[in-house]
Each structure stands twice: as structure tokens, then as C-alpha cells.
């Protein structure tokens, strides 16, 4: 028997595989990979060279994303395609407005 969460991810990957890489496709893959709570507290964009840039609303969420980067990257790449995302860059507003990585 296949768990529902794996079935849904596989179905989503099949639907996305033939679609061109776009901001909407990246946002959908991000939301599916991290879940609704983390999606709500982040903004993502995909840049050249395979870098997924994540802007978290605060330092707490930036730390959590940074800590979970290997898992998140594998989930996002399962949806977007192998080795599409090569790096995840995380930042958040600091006490004086500066970001963290």
C-alpha cells in the first residue's frame, strides 16, 4: 500500500514535469515541499545557476529553513526535476534590517 502523502507528491511531480520552469511552478513546488505554515512565512524566487532564494519573515524561520535545507532541496527537486535547484539561499530581516544566510 502507498501512503497518501507519497501518492499526492508523485501525482504532482507527474503534472509538473512537462511544464516550463516558471515562478508559479517554483512557488507550487515550494509550497508542496515545505507545507502551508512555512510557505506562509516565506517568499521564494528562482535565479540563474539553480539558486532558490528564500526570504523568511523573521530570523527564526530563516534558521529553520537553513537547518532543513537538504530535506527541502530533495523535495523541491523531486517536483521540479533532478538537480534543478542546486543551492538554497536563505535570508531574513535582522535587528537592523540586514539579512542572514
Automatic annotation (TrEMBL):
Pfam family, one: DciA
UniProt name for this protein: DUF721 domain-containing protein
Originating organism: marine metagenome
